């Protein structure tokens, strides 16, 4: 890896620090401890989990069914979590803005729960996991077209210690 | 707001409606009305042309009242004109001046400017008390409508006194209860769309006297008032997980409700008697509706289905609950008895129906509808008939009823990266759509009952 790409990865890691807490860090304080990201080149680091394993999966409109691609990512997450047993996780469920607030909270909970159920079936102990829904309260993309909506209909697996 | 510490301590009855019939307008009035028919505006028929009214500056009966007299008559005029049912004839166009409360009315002068109704008032301030009296004149019949009324209250809450007067005038002209002396609790928003900060706030219905109730460190959602207006239920992410809380407005004290580990609680609403709370509880990805007895702390499950059941709202008599469910495949509105029995579907049209709220009059359900990429606020009868969409936009949601069941406030959010939420209100006729005054972006309004 040359110096430029290392520098870029570092920038990327810094940009991701905001994603370390549930709710992508924005405005949500309270009970979840912050953990260090570590180096993206350290395969046991949070940064590596977010960047190389993939911390999120996406959903179709108004759906909580896992796509084949989502299951692949969750299997990678599961094997990483098995190798890094000191981490627990909070699974965040999110919805796009096309929906009422209450319904989207419930929909986000369905999505987080679908992820938790799948991680259970691939060997992650239930007591390492918690779910939370943010409904449409924490979009990562802010445009009001399908490109953005597709990236907001997500679950994010957040590592905790 | 400070002198008597009126931080919503209105239960103490700060206003005494002294109903001091201001003499000289006696029993013969009723007969006159019966002959001529009272001036009356029918809201339900949809007013095309607002009724012209005049609100000349109230008479200051002593030097201390000068400033208040001017301000109080302005608030009354704004209340009346703000309904869209009345149009104020500007004071600059008035021919006649009112120089004393009981002066004879120069009817010809008010007819000349086409004032159909005239609000005459006077203010007297002694120490910390403002006394406001008013009478309402039907200009073209040359008669006073109803008795004169007098309100006494602390000068610090002169705006409420003005709203009381306007409520009385509105009520006499429309035959409906007023809604001006009321408050709205809402979520004040700041920051970009992907890092929105939210805090609870409360204001007068017209945007005055804003008070922030929480800081913006945690997401707060959908506050709801008790029917006494003294407590607020809301959802907060204070612990990083959504839970429901109850705030005592006078004391600003907050307690956590329905806290079960591993679950998520949201969408709370009071029963009309204030003794229980209905809310949504999510367990293992499935959301159902529960009722919590506030005295005992006992929770009871009211729905039990693998679908999403949320956004419950009681009927005004407390006997039924309207809510949304996607058990049919998409969001639709259902009604059940308060114990969870006798469930039936109410909505049947195209699209998705959510956030139903029972009208305080009991006759209508307001809802959010999504159809073909647009959001609407609408109303329907409780059997689902006579659906009427009142608004359309990129994102309208979360209706709340004015205390008289004639006006609905809701959240409207604009689209795109710079999208922001605002509060809007609209008549149930679909007329008079307008933005409510808030300092910044705002969402999730809940309208209080009329203050006592």
Question: What would you say about this model in short?
Answer:
The complex is a heterodimer of chains A (161) and B (452). Chain A has helices at 3-16, 46-54, 68-83, 101-121, 146-152, and strands spanning 56-58, 88-94, 129-135, 154-160.
Number of domains of chain B: 2
What is the H-and-E element order of chain A?
A: HHEHEHEHE
Helix content estimate of chain A: 40-55%
Mean pLDDT of chain A: 85
CATH superfamily assignment of the largest domain in chain B?
A: TolB, C-terminal domain
Major beta sheet summary of chain B: 8 strands, mixed
Can you put this structure into words, describing what you see?
The complex is a heterodimer of chains A (about 160) and B (about 450). Chain A is built from five helices and four strands, in the order H-H-E-H-E-H-E-H-E. Chain A is of the alpha+beta class. Chain A has two domains: about 30 residues, no CATH class; about 130 residues, 60s Ribosomal Protein L30, Chain: A. In chain A, strands 1-4-2-3 form a four-stranded mixed β-sheet. In chain A, helix 4 links the parallel strand 2 and strand 3. The longest helix of chain A has 21 residues. Chain A starts with a helix and ends with a strand. The N terminus of chain A is likely disordered. Chain B is mainly beta. Chain B is about 10% helix and about 40% strand. In chain B, a hairpin with a 5-residue loop joins strand 20 and strand 21. The longest helix of chain B has 17 residues. Chain B is elongated and about 70 Å long. At the A-B interface, helix 4 and strand 3 of A face strand 16 of B.
């Amino acid at each position: 890896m040359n110096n430029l790409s290392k520098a870029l990865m570092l920038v990327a890691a810094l940009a991701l620090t905001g994603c370390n807490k549930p709710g992508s860090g924005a405005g949500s304080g309270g009970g979840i401890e912050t953990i260090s990201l570590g180096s993206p080149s350290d395969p046991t680091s949070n940064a590596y989990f977010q960047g190389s394993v993939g911390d999120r999966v996406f959903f179709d409109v108004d759906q909580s069914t896992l796509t084949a691609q989502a299951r692949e990512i969750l299997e990678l997450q599961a094997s990483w979590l098995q190798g890094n047993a000191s981490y627990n996780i909070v699974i965040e469920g999110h919805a796009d803005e096309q929906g009422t607030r209450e319904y989207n909270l419930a929909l986000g909970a369905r999505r987080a729960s679908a992820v938790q159920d799948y991680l259970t079936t691939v060997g992650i102990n239930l007591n390492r996991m918690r779910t939370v829904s943010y409904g449409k309260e924490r979009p990562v993309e802010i445009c009001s077209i399908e490109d953005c909506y597709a990236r907001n209909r997500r679950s994010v697996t957040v590592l905790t210690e | 707001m400070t002198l008597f510490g009126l931080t919503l301590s209105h239960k103490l009855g700060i206003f005494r409606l002294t109903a001091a019939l201001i003499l000289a307008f006696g029993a013969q009035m009723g007969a006159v009305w019966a002959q001529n028919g009272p001036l009356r505006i029918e809201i339900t028929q949809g007013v095309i042309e607002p009724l012209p009214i005049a609100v000349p500056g109230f008479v200051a009966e002593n030097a201390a009242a000068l400033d208040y007299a001017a301000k109080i008559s302005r608030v009354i005029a704004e209340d009346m004109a703000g309904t869209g049912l009345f149009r104020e004839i500007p004071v600059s166009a008035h021919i006649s001046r009112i120089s004393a409360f009981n002066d004879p009315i120069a009817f010809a002068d008010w007819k000349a400017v086409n004032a159909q109704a005239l609000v005459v008032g006077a203010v007297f301030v002694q120490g910390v008390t403002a006394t406001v009296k008013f009478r309402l004149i039907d200009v073209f019949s040359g008669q006073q409508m109803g008795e004169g009324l007098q309100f006494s209250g602390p000068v610090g809450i002169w705006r409420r006194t003005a709203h009381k007067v306007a409520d009385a005038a509105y009520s006499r002209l429309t035959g409906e209860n007023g809604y001006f002396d009321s408050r709205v609790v809402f979520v004040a928003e700041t920051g970009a769309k992907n890092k929105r900060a939210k805090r609870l706030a409360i204001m007068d219905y017209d945007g005055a006297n804003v008070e922030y109730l929480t800081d913006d460190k945690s997401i707060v959602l959908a506050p709801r008032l008790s029917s006494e207006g003294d407590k607020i239920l809301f959802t907060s992410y204070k612990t990083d997980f959504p839970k429901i809380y109850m705030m005592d407005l006078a004391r600003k004290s907050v307690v956590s409700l329905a806290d079960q580990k591993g679950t998520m609680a949201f969408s709370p609403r009071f029963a009309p008697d204030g003794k229980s709370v209905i809310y949504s509880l999510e367990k293992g990805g499935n959301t159902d509706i529960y009722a919590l007895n506030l005295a005992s702390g006992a929770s009871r499950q009211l729905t039990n289905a693998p679908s999403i059941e949320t956004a419950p709202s009681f009927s005004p008599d407390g006997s039924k609950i309207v809510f949304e469910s996607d058990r049919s495949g998409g969001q639709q509105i259902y009604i059940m008895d308060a114990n969870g029995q006798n469930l039936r579907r109410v909505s049947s049209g195209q699209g998705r129906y959510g956030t139903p709220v029972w009208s305080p009059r009991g006759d209508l359900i307001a809802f959010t509808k999504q159809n073909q990429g647009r959001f609407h606020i609408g109303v329907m009868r409780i059997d689902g008939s006579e659906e009427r969409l009142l608004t359309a936009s990129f994102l309208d949601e979360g209706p709340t009823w004015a205390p008289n069941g004639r006006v609905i406030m809701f959240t409207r959010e604009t689209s795109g990266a710079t999208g922001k939420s605002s509060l809007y209100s609209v008549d149930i006729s679909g007329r008079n759509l307008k933005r409510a005054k808030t300092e910044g972006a705002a969402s999730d309004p809940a309208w209080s009952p009329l203050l006592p």
